[in-house]
Write a structure and sequence with these properties.
174 residues; 4 strands; 39% helix
């Protein structure tokens, strides 16, 4: 019994045991911080792509060609400029249909469910004209809905895939 008491009272090697307990916890926290940072970066990038797509969708092509509205290729190029510049995978844009704030009369029309850029990449993006922009259905405009399937570089136990949505809208320009 005396040797057991001496063994328990001995503090040699305690630092190594504490280190062995703390390191896995510290690693999980650091990987979590890295993954949250990646997700925030992807979220801001997807929102930027949606904003650029909205600007392209609302902009008339040119005054000398009859002010035709943007086609799917022009909108796809706007999304691709952001996606390629930030290394987002075009195949990870998945279909997304968020609900409306109210029931509009006449109902909104889906202009595009997907767009293809001039380089051939297809982006699943919902572009809706005549979408209600407020809860009273008094303002209608264009709404862009994108969703990106984010796969973290360092997957934690419960986080294999995260869907990051972006919805931007704006009133119809004259």
């Amino acid at each position: 019994m005396r040797k057991f008491t001496q063994f328990v009272a001995d503090t040699r090697g305690a630092e190594i045991a504490e280190f062995a307990i703390v390191i896995p916890i510290l690693a999980v926290v650091l990987f979590g911080i890295f993954t949250v940072g990646q997700a925030m970066y992807v979220s801001s990038t997807v929102t930027k792509a949606a904003n650029d797509a909205l600007a392209a969708a609302q902009k008339a092509s040119c005054g000398s060609c009859g002010n035709a509205i943007a086609n799917g290729t022009q909108i796809g190029d706007a999304i691709e400029k952001v996606a390629v510049g930030t290394r987002l995978d075009p195949n990870n844009f998945v279909a997304f249909t968020p609900p409306y704030l109210c029931t509009a009369n006449p109902p909104p029309t889906v202009r595009f469910a997907s767009v293809t850029s001039s380089t051939g990449n297809t982006y699943n993006v919902q572009i809706v004209d005549g979408a209600p922009l407020d809860a009273n259905c008094t303002t209608v405009g264009t709404r862009i809905a994108l969703q990106y399937k984010f796969v973290p570089a360092l997957p934690l136990a419960g986080l294999r895939t995260l869907l990051i949505p972006a919805v931007v809208q704006g009133p119809t320009e004259n």
